[in-house]
Design brief:
Elements lengths: L9 H9 L7 E3 L10 H13 L4 E4 L2 E3 L3 E2 L2 E2 L4 H9 L9 E3 L1 H6 L11 E3 L14
Antiparallel strand pairs: 1-3, 2-3, 4-5, 6-7
C-alpha cells in the first residue's frame, strides 16, 4: 500500500519556503508562485507572519527575514531598498541613482545625501521607502 502524503497548509508551505532564504534576505510574493497557492493567500499568510514577528515588511509585497546581531535587530539597508525599487519583473534594473547620491558614488563630491533619489524610465507616482525616493 502506498504511503499517504499528509496535506500541508498554505502557512506550512510558505514557512518551508522561507527556510530556504538567508536571514536578512528579501522575499517577494513571486518567490511563492510555484507553490500553487493563490497570491491573495500568500499575502494573508505573509501578513500574519509579519504580525507574529517571523518576517518584516519592507514595502507592499516585499518582506525581509529578520537579521539579528548581538546588539539586536539589523535594519534594512539602503542597498536592499534600492534593489526592491529598481528591480523589474524580468530581473533587470529599472532605474538608477541620481543627484547627490550619484555624484558621491562617482567620487565627484564628499556630500552625502539625506535622501537617495532614483530616476526611472517609466512614469509613475514617486515612491518613498525609508530615505530612498
Amino acid at each position: 500500500m502506498a504511503a499517504m502524503i499528509e496535506p500541508t497548509t498554505a502557512r506550512q508551505r510558505v514557512l518551508n519556503r522561507l527556510q530556504r532564504f538567508e536571514p536578512g534576505s528579501l522575499v517577494r510574493y513571486r518567490d511563492f508562485a510555484d507553490l500553487n497557492i493563490a497570491p491573495g493567500t500568500v499575502a494573508v499568510v505573509l501578513s500574519r507572519l509579519r504580525q507574529a514577528g517571523v518576517v518584516q515588511q519592507v514595502t507592499k509585497g516585499t518582506y525581509r527575514l529578520p537579521l539579528q546581531s548581538r546588539f539586536g535587530s539589523v535594519p534594512v539597508s539602503e542597498q536592499q531598498v534600492m534593489q526592491v525599487l529598481l528591480q523589474t519583473s524580468d530581473k533587470q534594473m529599472g532605474g538608477y541613482p541620481t543627484g547627490v547620491t550619484a555624484f558621491n558614488r562617482l567620487g565627484l563630491t564628499t556630500q552625502v545625501a539625506q535622501e537617495i533619489e532614483i530616476a526611472t524610465p517609466r512614469p509613475g507616482r514617486p515612491k518613498k521607502v525609508g530615505n530612498v525616493r
